[in-house]
């Protein structure tokens, strides 16, 4: 260590305290720049700075009138200031024995006046200085001295805040990892449950299409209902996972509101007990077509009406829908589901919307159910900016009321074309699937369509068969031994240079799975358990080259709009900045990653993360967080590469959408 300067007794602890703030060599920061401007203004000086002193240099976090980022410690005035417990003020350096011959007094910065306040940490270590400097002699008044001390305390408070935020960020990352682990667990569990369920529902559907006597048909219908109920429970758990991780998107498409309500009514009428009258009342002024999420409305209605029918043994269940408000752009609709069932005790009314909660302990045993339904209903309604309430009395019945606002549709509904029977001629299809039941089911369904099917038990076998035969189409399970669906597709596209259409088939329902399928080169995605019509539609879509499907992500600008406070210029500027900066940063990050430059990758990923959060791109922000973490650990893995690739593809997609805006 250079000893041309005085060294504090606690130098090692002082350096440790400085290191703890991670402030050295960081980028400029408004909070510190503002403090420096304030010092210059209060003291009326041309030179001011906030600096930190390590083993052998004085590094300027913020400066006015200096023009360099650091100077050697042994030529700095501040090497003496950090030895003091209070402000050092030199009114005229020419009269000061210590400084009169200093190069920065006789020349250099021409320092004639110097005032420096040590920056003291809460535990008493002087890690740097806050200074005011002039080319003429000067004397500060009491107010100026007080102001400098206050600004110095503010600088330390800012450092402390930064440390606290870093700790919070670390905790947040741990929490995010826990959520990812939980989501992954839920998805894997759903995969394990859905795989056999897929076979049960599929074979039952096929069996129902054969010649059956009345008793057999009755049994088959019972199995179908049980299968559908089990699927509902699995879907409830998955929906809950998606809602919690902020990944459940609400659609905004035109749909026929009256038809949707009648469909839910017809669907549930068959489950109504003989002693119960089931009514549907629709307001005469109700619109036919509205814009919103038809699937989620159906889910809410089926859940609420299903509950009422389940808990009502006699009397009636009445569903009524009314238009309560109309503006130039929207309709506000009030939905009511009223019954004469067992009712709910007053003290339970506040908790029935909580998860795994039911009005009575015995309810689950008597009536069945997960205790998730009402929790999901409430969250789905709130995700659509609606509200739900309940009125109830034990043994008198209940009424659930919810309000939803739908946009008006611009055009009248165009009737969707029904899926015709197979008009694709004779197709030869390869199925990559390791589950025997699913193989058998797919074979039966594909043969029903009039196509030929070959089966590979894993990706390696699939590649082998593809290299030997010509196929029109590949159905690809994602989870297989030896080579999974992603690796196999990657090989088909990049090693075999084949453009054979590939449809992903998976019982996984993790958010982002579809996007990843398209990124790796698949052409369509069919979730299991698959409906025959959905599979046929996917086959028709990929076999028709003109029918190119656009897989478009939705960019949520609600946080940006909130920040804009109604200023369209701010919103436009922010979008412009994103389009200009983020792709360039992504390219720099990729280059730094390939050069194994951990520091640059860490800085870029950290900076990008905050931009991605503003645009609520949670999946890409999670990628950036993983990249930053791996860079901090100083070791890149195959997961880092995967996340860099996903980030690259995602940014391209987002920029395209933002440009259209």
TrEMBL record:
GO terms for molecular function: ATP binding; phosphorelay sensor kinase activity. PANTHER family: HYBRID SIGNAL TRANSDUCTION HISTIDINE KINASE J. This is Sensory/regulatory protein RpfC. PROSITE patterns: HIS_KIN (PS50109), HPT (PS50894), RESPONSE_REGULATORY (PS50110). The modification 4-aspartylphosphate is found at residue 477. It comes from Flavobacterium fluviale. Pfam families: GAF, HATPase_c, HisKA, Hpt, Response_reg. At low DSF concentrations, interacts with RpfF. It is found in: Cell membrane. Its EC number is 2.7.13.3. Residues 188-408 form the Histidine kinase domain.
């Amino acid at each position: 260590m250079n000893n041309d300067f005085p060294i504090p007794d606690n130098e090692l602890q002082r350096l440790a305290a400085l290191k703890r703030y991670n402030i050295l060599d960081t980028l400029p920061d408004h909070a510190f720049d503002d403090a420096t401007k304030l010092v210059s203004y209060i003291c009326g000086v041309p030179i001011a700075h906030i600096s930190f002193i390590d083993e052998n240099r004085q590094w300027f976090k913020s400066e006015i009138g200096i023009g360099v980022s650091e100077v050697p410690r042994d030529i700095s005035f501040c090497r003496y200031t950090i030895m003091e417990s209070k402000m050092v003020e030199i009114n005229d350096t020419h009269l000061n024995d210590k400084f009169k011959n200093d190069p920065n007094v006789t020349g250099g910065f021409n320092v004639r006046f110097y005032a420096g306040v040590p920056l003291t940490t809460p535990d008493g270590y002087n890690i740097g200085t806050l200074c005011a400097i002039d080319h003429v002699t000067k004397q500060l008044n009491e107010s100026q001295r007080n102001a400098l001390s206050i600004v110095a305390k503010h600088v330390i408070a800012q450092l402390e805040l930064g440390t606290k935020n870093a700790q919070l960020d670390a905790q947040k990352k741990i929490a995010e990892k826990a959520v990812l682990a939980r989501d992954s667990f839920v998805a894997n569990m759903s995969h394990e449950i859905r795989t056999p369920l897929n076979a049960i529902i599929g074979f039952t559907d096929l069996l129902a299409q054969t010649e059956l006597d009345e008793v057999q048909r009755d049994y088959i219908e019972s199995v179908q209902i049980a299968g559908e109920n089990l699927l509902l429970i699995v879907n409830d758990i998955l929906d809950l996972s998606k809602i919690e991780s902020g990944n459940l998107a609400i659609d905004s498409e035109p749909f026929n509101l009256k038809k949707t309500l009648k469909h839910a009514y017809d669907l549930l009428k068959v489950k109504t007990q003989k002693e119960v009258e089931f009514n549907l009342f629709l307001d005469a002024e109700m619109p036919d077509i509205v814009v919103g999420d038809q699937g989620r409305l159906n889910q809410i209605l089926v859940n609420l009406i299903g509950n009422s029918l389940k808990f009502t043994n006699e009397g009636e269940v009445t569903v009524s829908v009314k238009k309560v408000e109309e503006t130039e752009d929207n309709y506000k609709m009030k939905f009511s589901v009223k019954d004469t069932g067992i009712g709910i005790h007053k003290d339970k009314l506040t908790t029935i919307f909580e998860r795994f909660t039911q009005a009575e302990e015995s309810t689950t045993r008597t009536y069945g159910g997960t205790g998730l339904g009402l929790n999901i209903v409430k969250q789905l309604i709130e995700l659509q900016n609606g509200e739900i309430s309940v009125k109830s009395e034990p043994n008198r019945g209940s009424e659930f009321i919810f309000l939803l606002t739908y946009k008006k549709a611009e055009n009248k509904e165009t009737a969707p074309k029904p899926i015709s029977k197979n008009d694709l001629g004779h197709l030869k299809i390869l199925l990559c699937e390791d589950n025997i039941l699913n193989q058998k089911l797919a074979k039966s369904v594909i043969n029903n369509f009039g196509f030929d099917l070959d089966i590979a038990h894993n990706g390696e076998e699939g590649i082998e068969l593809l290299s030997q035969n010509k196929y029109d189409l590949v159905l690809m399970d994602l989870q297989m031994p030896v080579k999974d669906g992603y690796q196999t597709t990657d090989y088909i596209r990049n090693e075999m240079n084949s453009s054979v259409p590939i449809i992903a088939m998976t019982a996984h329902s993790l958010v982002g799975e579809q996007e990843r399928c398209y990124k790796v080169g698949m052409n369509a995605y069919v979730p299991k358990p698959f409906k025959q019509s959905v599979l046929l539609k996917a086959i028709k879509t990929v076999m028709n080259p003109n029918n190119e499907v656009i897989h478009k992500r939705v960019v949520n600008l609600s946080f940006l709009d909130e920040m804009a406070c109604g200023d369209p210029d701010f919103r436009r500027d922010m979008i412009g900045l994103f389009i200009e900066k983020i792709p360039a940063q992504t390219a720099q990050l990729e280059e730094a990653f390939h050069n194994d430059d951990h520091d640059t990758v860490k800085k870029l990923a950290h900076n990008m993360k905050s931009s991605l959060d503003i645009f609520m791109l949670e999946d890409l922000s999670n990628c950036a967080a993983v990249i930053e973490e791996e860079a901090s650990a100083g070791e890149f893995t195959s997961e880092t590469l995967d996340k860099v690739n996903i980030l690259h593809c995602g940014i391209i997609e987002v920029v395209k959408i933002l440009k259209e805006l």
